[in-house]
Write a structure and sequence with these properties.
three-stranded antiparallel beta sheet, single chain, globular, mainly alpha, about 200 residues
Length: about 200
């Protein structure tokens, strides 16, 4: 029996407290492809299809995809090659550099994305209230930028939100990084040279 003056023994250290928010994010990523209607592609192949469907013309390369997918260039190249063999991606000559090529979706690739297993998660996000959805998107963007800084990795984002995007010219949008004019499709596209918007003028 404990005397009035005795102190309870300190609880043993159970180790670091798990971060349930981080675990939930990883669980969501896994849940996207579990019990998917179309299981003919691996998660990495689905990611590649989405990437090349949404990346801008400067970022549609295997090396840029390897950065986006946080994997080695060799692994990314094998994923791209497998999708080319399936007829879902194709190589096209680079318009300004004859020594390199770009990766584009084929018509079959676009049709494949109509059954994207990510669509269920997109539907759930769209069901959020506008305020909650905006806060969620802002939080994810902040986490992505913070983790990229910790890992010294590139931060991907859309040209329309990028600090290199110069909108000061009347009727034109200019990318200070690529030194090129941007069109409406570019503004909605992912870019490997994305920079935080506070650089914008």
């Amino acid at each position: 029996m404990m005397s009035p003056t005795s102190q309870p023994e300190p609880a043993q250290d159970a180790g670091p407290i798990p971060c349930h928010s981080a675990e939930l994010l990883v669980h969501l990523a896994r849940l996207v492809h579990s019990a998917a209607a179309d299981v003919s592609l691996t998660p990495a192949q689905w990611t590649a299809l989405r990437y090349f469907a949404s990346a801008n013309r400067m970022s549609r390369t295997p090396s840029a995809f390897s950065e986006f997918n946080a994997t080695t260039r060799g692994t990314a190249s094998q994923t791209v090659k497998s999708l080319i063999a399936l007829g879902l991606l194709e190589k096209r000559a680079h318009e300004s550099d004859g020594r390199s090529f770009l990766i584009e979706l084929t018509e079959a690739g676009r049709e494949k994305l109509a059954d994207d297993p990510l669509d269920d998660l997109i539907h759930c996000i769209k069901d959020l209230s506008p305020a909650r959805r905006a806060a969620f998107t802002e939080t994810l963007a902040h986490l992505g930028e913070a983790l990229a800084r910790l890992r010294a990795a590139p931060t991907f984002g859309k040209c329309g939100d990028c600090g290199h995007c110069d909108t000061s010219r009347s009727g034109e949008v200019f990318c200070r990084c690529s030194q090129s004019l941007l069109n409406s499709a570019d503004m909605r596209a992912l870019c490997i040279d994305f920079a935080p918007g506070n650089l914008r003028r």
